[in-house]
From TrEMBL:
<protein>
    <recommendedName>
        <fullName>Activator of Hsp90 ATPase AHSA1-like N-terminal domain-containing protein</fullName>
    </recommendedName>
</protein>
<feature type="domain" description="Activator of Hsp90 ATPase AHSA1-like N-terminal">
    <location>
        <begin position="29"/>
        <end position="163"/>
    </location>
</feature>
<dbReference type="InterPro" id="IPR036338">
    <property type="entry name" value="Aha1"/>
</dbReference>
<dbReference type="GO" id="GO:0051087">
    <property type="term" value="F:protein-folding chaperone binding"/>
</dbReference>
<dbReference type="GO" id="GO:0005829">
    <property type="term" value="C:cytosol"/>
</dbReference>
<dbReference type="GO" id="GO:0001671">
    <property type="term" value="F:ATPase activator activity"/>
</dbReference>
<comment type="similarity">
    <text>Belongs to the AHA1 family.</text>
</comment>
<dbReference type="Pfam" id="PF08327">
    <property type="entry name" value="AHSA1"/>
</dbReference>
<dbReference type="InterPro" id="IPR023393">
    <property type="entry name" value="START-like_dom_sf"/>
</dbReference>
<dbReference type="GO" id="GO:0006457">
    <property type="term" value="P:protein folding"/>
</dbReference>
<dbReference type="InterPro" id="IPR015310">
    <property type="entry name" value="AHSA1-like_N"/>
</dbReference>
<dbReference type="InterPro" id="IPR013538">
    <property type="entry name" value="ASHA1/2-like_C"/>
</dbReference>
<dbReference type="Pfam" id="PF09229">
    <property type="entry name" value="Aha1_N"/>
</dbReference>
Amino acid sequence: MAEWGKGDPRWIVEERPDATNPNNWHWKEKNATQWSKDKLNELLVGLKVENEQFTCEVKELKRCEGEASANNRKAKLVFLYEWHIEGKWEGWISTGENRTKYEGGFEVPNLSDENEVHELTITFSVEKTKGEKLKELMVQKGESLIREKLGEYIRSLKEEFSQGLILPTKTSSTTNNSKITTNVNVTATASKPSSNPSSSTNKTSFDTRELTLEDTFKCSRPELFQTFTDLNMVRSFTQNSVSKYECQQDGQFSLFGDNITGTFLDIVPYDRIEMLWRFKSWPKEHFSHVSLQFRDDIEQTKIIVQQTGVPEQFYDNTMEGWKRFYFESIKATFGYGARLL
C-alpha cells in the first residue's frame, strides 16, 4: 500500500499562486465573534416552549459575552469558542381568560469548545412565585430545545468558517472548480449500477469479493460528508495528491498519483455517495462499486463503506488502503479522531 501516494507531499514546500502558507502549514485564523453573536440571537430569540396549558417565549439575550474563531494549522481545522449567555423569557397561561405574563430568565455560563452540548449547564429562574409552573415547563421542555439550538450554532460555526481556511495549492489554481458540487442542491438522479460492477466492461475471469468497513468520526454528518466532496478538504487529507475531482453525477476522480480512479454515480447530500472505483494495478478496465453511507451516531458520525467487485487478490490491500489513506488520514488532518479543541 505504500504505492498509493509514492512519497509524502507534506514535506514538500509548494510554490503557491498567492505566495502564502505553503501546504496550509502556517496558522491562519478567522474571527467568528460577531457572526456568533448574531447567530445565537437568531437561534434563541423567539424560541417558543409550549404545552396544553402554558406558552413561554425567549424575548431577548441580555448577555452574550465571549469570543469565537476558526483556525487552520498544518491543514487541521481547530474551532475555539467560549460564551456566557443570559436570556429573558416570558410565559403565560394559554387557556382561560387570565393573560397575565410572567417574566423569567435563563443562563448558560459554559458554552465552549471544552464542553460537549450535553455537558452544558442551563439554569432557569422566574420573577414571581405564581410563575413556577411556567418555570417547570422551561426546565422540562425548554432546556432540551435550547441545548438543541446551541448544538446547531456549533455545527453552523464549523460549516460556515471551514470554508477558505484550507487554501488551494498551485496545481489547484488551474483546476476548473466549477465542477465541484458541495451544497445541498445536488440531486440523486443517477440510475443504480448493476450488481456486477464490471458489467459494462470485459467479463471477469477472476474471483471478486465484497468489502464492508465501518468507522466513526468526532464530527457532524455534514462535516464528514463535506470531507469527501469539498475539493480543498480532499486535497488536504490526500496530501495534495489529486489530479481530478469532479464531485457531481458522472464526474470523474483521480487520486494518489492516479492510482485510484473512478466515476461518481450518485450523490445524496449528507447521506450517501456512490461511485465506480478502481485501483491502478487491478485487471484492466475492471471497476468495483463503492457506496459511502453517512449515519448519525451518539456525538459522532459513522461511515459505512460497502464495496462490491473487489478482486480477491487485492482484497486485503484495498481494505488497508481505506483505513490508512482515507480514515486515518482524515482523522489526523482534521482532528476528527478526537474531540475538536
